[in-house]
Amino acid sequence: MAAPRERRLKKIKVRTPGGRVVIRFRREKPSKHKCAICGNELFGVPHGKTPSQVRKLSKSERRPERVFGGVLCSNCARKVIELAVYVKSGAKKIEELDIRYKPYVESAIGWLA
Fold first, then answer.
1. Which of 9, 15, 36, 42 is deepest in the core (most CB within 10 A)?
2. CB contact at 8 A, 62 and 46
3. Of 108, 68, 71, the residue nearest 88 (C-alpha)
4. Which residues contact 63 (CB under 8 A, 6 or more apart)?
5. Rounded CA gap, 94 and 91, in Å?
């Protein structure tokens, strides 16, 4: 069985100045956060930090303090709120919506007053 270090770290072969080839272990950096609908990069969400570094941040530094912050990009969030208003007013039916938007529109209808 492989050592725990070998399982969780990426192996990189490096040639030393003496001419030997040694294996060094490196942590892989986490990927950038993506929008759940369109897949674009989310802004205002820290990336490239370890989970212990992110835990030390305050809640407002971990994600944007707006509706669907840290889940949807601003364009998709705007579209979801717009569709939720249409459904709430009766201009559209929830069955007519694109399947990507449906769960977010349903949750947005709940907090629309």
1. 42
2. yes
3. 108
4. 44, 45, 69, 70
5. 10
**Separation of alpha carbons 84 and 111, rounded Å:** 10
pTM score of the predicted model: 0.71
pLDDT in tens, 49-73: 777 888 898 888 888 888 999 899 9
- Asked if residues 83 and 105 have their Cβ atoms less than 8 Å apart, the reply is yes
How far apart, in whole angstroms, are the C-alpha atoms of residue 30 and residue 28?
Answer: 6
Asked if residues 77 and 67 have their Cβ atoms less than 8 Å apart, the reply is yes
Instruction: Supply angle C-alpha 23, 11, 5, rounded to 5.
Output: 95
pLDDT at 92 over 70: yes
What is the C-alpha to C-alpha distance for residues 98 and 113, in angstroms, rounded to an integer?
23
List the Cα angle 31/73/67 in 5-degree steps: 120
Secondary structure of 60-100 in the HEC alphabet?
HHHCCCCCCCCCCCHHHHHHHHHHHHHHHHCCCCHHHCCCC
